[in-house]
């Protein structure tokens, strides 16, 4: 229950600059490093996170200042909502705003008849992890990130198909029907459709989506191999290293070990020390 001197509102009611300011304040001391997101970048972040401001909420104090917020992303294909991000400004911590937002998220999910609620949290973020576990969320998968410096990953061209993005997104959308539904939103079409410069390669049971943001790096946006051996994923990674021999290859902390992570490790990529947990609360 929210304190009497606090007000819970729909995030869509707030001017974008106020929510953006609260976001930067809340994540200034984030475990994965501080955010300094420009206001011009705010719409792109919301798109990448799949956030629906009509489903999202914010807590205000008696002066109308934003104390905390919870951005919510619907996943209609699986009748789930994702807690895209939740944060409280430093001055508001300990006032119960974040737990109140989480309880509201749970209540609204039940009222909407959802199957489950989900979120990602860094395993090293002990305070947030305790809060989510205390509300019944449990770990479904570890999500690791990787980096391979130039020359570190085995480089070998292979036969593969470069596919158009609509076909690549269709491939991803078919995963749930094939039994692969426990994937973070950020590696799926809801998030990837807004990516700039995205390229897609396919080989056998695997698909690799990546961007080349600058002359120094390659960013893997989505790597999934439906075969447990992950041989096709490993071949695609080696082809990527051969195509970009002088670039660092990076993978954000969204990679499941069983759907491509093992291939990354075999190919020579190093796991990052910080990693996330995909957590879920089953409602029905």
Compact summary:
This protein is of the alpha+beta class and 284 residues long. Helix content is 27%, strand content 31%.
Keywords for this structure?
27% helix, globular, 8 helices, single chain, 13 strands, alpha+beta, 284 residues, 13-stranded mixed β-sheet, Aminopeptidase
Account of the protein in words:
The mean pLDDT is 94. 27% of the residues lie in helices and 31% in strands. The relative contact order is 0.15. The longest helix is centred in the middle third of the chain and has 15 residues. The protein folds into 2 domains: 108 residues, Gcn5-related N-acetyltransferase (GNAT) (Aminopeptidase, 3-Layer(aba) Sandwich); 131 residues, Aminopeptidase. It starts with 6 loop residues before the first strand and ends with a strand. With 284 residues, the chain is α+β, with helices and mostly antiparallel strands. Strand 9 and strand 10 form a beta hairpin. Strands 1, 2, 3, 4, 5, 6, 7, 8, 9, 10, 11, 12 and 13 form a 13-stranded mixed beta sheet that branches.
